[in-house]
Amino acid sequence: MSTDGPLKALNDSRRYLDVVQKQELSKSEAEWLIETTVSNFARYYNSGFIEYRKSVAETGDFASVEWTGRGATFRDVSGREYIDCLGGFGLFNLGWAHPKVVGAVQAQLEKSPLPTQELLDPLRGMLAHLLAEITPGDIQYSFFVGSGTEAVEGAMKLAKLYTRKSGFIASVRGFHGKTTGSLSLTGKAIFRRPALPLHNNIFHVPFGDAEAVEQQLRIAREVGNDIAAVIMEPIQGEAGAIVPPDDFWPRLRQICDEYEVLLIADEVQTGMGRTGKLWGVEHWSVVPDIITSAKALGGGVMPIGAFMSTPKIWSVMNSNPFIHTSTTGGNPLACAAAIAAINVTLEERIPEQAAEKGAYFIRQLKDIAARYSDVYTNITGKGLLIGQHFVNDEIGYAVASGLFKRGVLISGTLNNSRVIRVEPPIVITRQEIDTILNRLEDTLQDLHSSISTPNVLISSNGKSAEAGSMVGAFLAGALANAEGAPLASALVKAETPIAPTLALPVAQLSTDANSAVA
User: Fold this and answer.
1) Which of 6, 31, 167, 279 is the most exposed place for a label (fewest CB within 10 A)?
2) Measured between alpha carbons, how far is 67 from 72 in angstroms, rounded to an integer?
3) Which architecture characterizes domain 100-111+120-347 according to CATH?
4) Annotation: CATH topology of 22-94+352-511
5) Nearest to 127 by CA among 301, 340, 391, 366
6) What stretch of H or E contains 75?
7) Arithmetic mean of pLDDT over the chain
8) Tens of pLDDT along 303-342?
């Protein structure tokens, strides 16, 4: 901190608060905000975020900085409108700024934004009551946190407290968070390796393979490894909307009972109607011992997560209520949002909407994939948790960036686009889905028509080689521009219409195929 740091911070905070209060920006204000945002991210937050984002690379003169939205559409500060097909990776089930959720938070804000930590706060009890009414089986108790990874950490701790065992079985390519405990469960080396060693006594098996789970439990029993729980996503989200065989979850329930271990369903992404059921496990009529929830639980307005369980298991919490606490978890504003989110989810039949719209969306995407078999390898998913699987990262990124330039936000970054999730707000209209499909078709046709030279493949040294990819030549020219450009100022203006001009080693484009956020 410099000697004049506090004075600078005071003046900067005044200008930033002025932006917070504004509903609209002039052109000059918007350009200032874009430049300031890119600079702040590069200098004070994480420059890597900028290097891989379509919102910086694919928007012409100025980066796209989000501003406001309603339903399934939003605008950036320059006034460009997008259909949201990313949905905040599951945050926006109810769309951007659902009025009932916003209204509940605003009303609570006028009374009590945060708890005393001593008096009983009514909304925490109300939310716990509602969750007991809508969760499977005899799950009755809840604890509230601020995020999905915290919910998973809490579920792990509860399982260990109840069973007095320390081990867990999770799945390869599963995603449960990036804090130390949940990261131990996450099944991707790209996330785990830099933080090793993590928690021990953690075992990973192929997702959807119940026999592998049973074999691991059998081995654990033979060698004396004590397993507290098996934890799985009902449908793998970050891995690309991977749906397990229909007998997988019923067999998990049977196996866990046989070996006397708990079954944890990580519903952080699948819960609250995303897959066409209120909870993902309901597709197979399975009742887990512990459920985690987050993302859409806050109605797309406030961050909140929860882990929930039965009275029998929760007895270890009731006997010592201070064994697990959180200063801000379950605060009145977050609980108000979650109460409203549950109300809207039930009142507007969000799970049923997801089932109907998802069936249509998946059917149309499969038809497109069949016609562009040189681009796609598969379409997977349930409800509105859908995975587009491409032949490689480069083609996936070309599709994702092409859609972005056509006003459709979808997942996919420069170094991770082989699998791109389709996860729009569930309130998206059929007309908006058709618009997305038309723009996808246009993107794919444009990729075909753009190729007039022999196809090439980008190798790890950035050179071109003959290959069968239909967009090889298209990407070769684009990615050639990605080497050697300065980061600080060039990031504000993206000069290349296809791929970013960034100081990024081309080798990274193919080495971290499974890197993503969730």
Assistant:
1) 6
2) 14
3) 3-Layer(aba) Sandwich (3.40)
4) Aspartate Aminotransferase, domain 1 (3.90.1150)
5) 340
6) strand 73-76
7) 87
8) 999 999 999 999 999 999 999 999 999 999 999 999 999 9
